[in-house]
Amino acid sequence: MRFANPHIFWLFIVVIALIAIFVYGVYIQRRKLRRFGNPQLLRELMPNVSYIRPQVKFYMLVVALVLLIFALARPQIGSKLEKKKTTGIEVMIVLDVSNSMLATDVAPSRLENAKMMLSKLIDQMPDNKVGLIVFAGDAFVQLPITADGVSAKMFLSNITTKSVANPGTAVGTAIDLAIKSFGEENKDKGRTIILLTDGENHEDDAVAAAKLAREKGIMVNVVGFGSPQGAPIPVQGTMSFWKDKEGNVVVSKLNEQMGQQIAQAGDGVYVRADNSNIALRTISKQLSQIQKGEIQTTAFADYADKFYIFAWIAFFILVIEFFILSRQNKQLNKYKWF
């Protein structure tokens, strides 16, 4: 499903403003009534006045307006699948989500900076296939390799340090899982692993894993996050930092030597990320030099408009709202409609 006019959703600001104005108006009205006397006595003096009906009518109009906004955005559902052949490469992104990636020596944090960089990188390679692996003490495939960049960015946005329960930095395990995730078919196209990590406290032989990837024709590129000087690791939800057993604040430092060794073993490049786009440009240039092969993808080639569903529901709500009186009817007053 997609929306042909997603910019229309900015109109939700108008909806929020209308609700705020209405709520404020109701508050002012009730405050004025209190000046005249006890609200309960005033209700008995005005038996035909309904305090609920105007609110029901207003919120029905709001619901109708929301539905009309969705209709104007033109929701569409894919109705025809088509196989498409392009030339590109396969990229497995391997992202470190250990607690040390919360350090803020790269703004806003190492992990968030990595996610922003990857989001831009995915936008720059629409014809390539992308997969996503997250790791800390263990490694897991977050997204199998796919040509769906939208899904890749969606999965990427939901990644946190809680995505992997076991603490640690098992870089070698993550690289080994990335190698297996490519599969054994279609080896004619270029394949690469992009490892994003601060490289701290690695627990296995990551260099050996990178050498194995190179032997299988898979390039390993590494992006280091952090600084050699290091930074403390914030404890999420608090104003404090992680401490060791002696009570000293733990300072997480970028292990550039490890990153360089992995990249060299994997016949790739190493680059340190900062608050500029140097790392993004370096990796993009490296990807452009990889030999491309034929990639076959399946995607929706035709979409059917479904805006009329929202429009009809909005119409029926408006018809019902029209027949709801703001005041109570004497003949129908004995029925408790609202």
Structural topology:
Blueprint: E1 2-3, H1 12-36, H2 39-45, H3 53-72, E2 75-88, E3 90-96, H4 110-123, E4 129-135, E5 139-146, H5 149-157, H6 171-182, E6 191-197, H7 206-215, E7 218-225, E8 231-232, E9 251-252, H8 256-265, E10 270-273, H9 278-288, E11 293-305, H10 307-323
Parallel strand pairs: 3-4, 3-6, 6-7, 7-10
Antiparallel strand pairs: 1-2, 2-11, 4-5, 8-9
Describe the structure.
By secondary structure, this protein is an alpha/beta fold. Helix 7 runs parallel beside helix 8 (about 255-265). The protein contains ten helices and eleven strands. Strands 5-4-3-6-7-10 form a six-stranded mixed sheet, with helices on both faces. Strands 1-2-11 form a three-stranded antiparallel sheet. The protein is flat and about 80 Å long. Helix 4 links the parallel strand 3 and strand 4 (about 130-135).
